[in-house]
């Protein structure tokens, strides 16, 4: 037990050194400019002027007055960042140097330290096909280190995925507007798609929601390696498939692309900024690209 605990502490320290350095050197400034201005308290409504952000349009007042109006905000002194972290079975998959869980953990740590540099609170929602754990937002290094430790060693009760659950929980649990990063491979089961779209629309209307998709290239395409046994990490279902058959590889790729189109459409409709990162890719470039786009 003691060895396991010291191993966890070493992992926490290793992640802290890497991600805190990235945060201090690269992300804090980008984070501030990209998200600080989104931590706003509603003040008033006024008529739309050329150059105003169309995302601030108040559609109810616009419909009543028949002239476009926008919401005017006052910047709050501090922000709250919420990390919505997918801990379902599929996070343990990866064919590159790192599994998806490793990348999600590092990105979450970078974001948390970036928020800390701005004296913001950080909270966390772990989810699978249910809400697994809620860590209320707080400030401070020790709080962030606790979140990183949980990211490393947390063992979920569920294996499946329901992306609607953390969004619904966020809407109900966090009353003030926050910036919420949804970190997942975004493999949305058919039965959760409608609930995901609905909960995303509600959550993004109340909070500044940002999607970060972390996936492995083998999620998207099968290699030609003959007959292999594959297992669904979330259902435990196993089957043998012949990857040498082009039709099998094409069906697999088509299913991934269809899921990808659904997610992109849902995020775009919800006006949610998002970026994708593979397990063999430099997530630093992807995050900077995301921040600069805002």
UniProtKB/TrEMBL annotation:
Lineage top rank: taxon: Bacteria
Pfam families, per the entry: DUF58
DUF58 domain segment(s): 44-258
Record PANTHER family: BLL2464 PROTEIN
Stated name of the protein: DUF58 domain-containing protein
UniProt organism field: Candidatus Tidjanibacter faecipullorum
């Amino acid at each position: 037990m003691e060895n396991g605990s010291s191993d966890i502490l070493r992992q926490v320290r290793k992640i802290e050194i890497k991600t805190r350095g990235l945060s201090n050197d690269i992300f804090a400034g980008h984070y501030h400019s990209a998200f600080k201005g989104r931590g706003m308290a509603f003040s008033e409504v006024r008529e739309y002027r050329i150059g105003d952000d169309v995302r601030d349009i108040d559609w109810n007042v616009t419909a009543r007055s028949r002239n476009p109006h926008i919401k005017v905000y006052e910047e709050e002194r501090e922000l709250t960042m919420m990390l919505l972290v997918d801990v379902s079975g599929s996070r343990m998959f990866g064919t590159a140097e790192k599994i998806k869980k490793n990348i999600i953990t590092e990105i979450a740590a970078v974001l948390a330290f970036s928020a800390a540099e701005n004296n913001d609170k950080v909270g966390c929602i772990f989810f699978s096909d249910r809400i697994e754990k809620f860590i209320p937002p707080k400030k401070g290094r020790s709080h962030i280190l606790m979140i990183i430790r949980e990211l490393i060693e947390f063992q979920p009760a569920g294996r499946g995925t329901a992306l609607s659950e953390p969004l619904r929980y966020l809407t109900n649990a966090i009353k003030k507007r926050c910036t919420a990063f949804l970190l997942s491979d975004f493999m949305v089961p058919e039965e959760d798609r409608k609930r995901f779209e609905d909960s995303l629309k509600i959550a993004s209307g109340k909070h500044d929601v940002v999607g970060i998709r972390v996936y492995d290239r083998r999620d998207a395409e099968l290699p030609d390696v003959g007959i292999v046994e594959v297992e669904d990490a979330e259902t435990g279902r196993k089957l043998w498939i012949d990857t040498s058959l082009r039709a099998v590889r094409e069906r697999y790729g088509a299913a991934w692309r269809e899921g990808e189109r659904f997610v992109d459409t849902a995020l775009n409709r919800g006006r949610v900024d998002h970026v994708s990162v593979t397990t063999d890719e430099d997530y630093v470039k992807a995050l900077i690209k995301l921040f600069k786009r805002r």
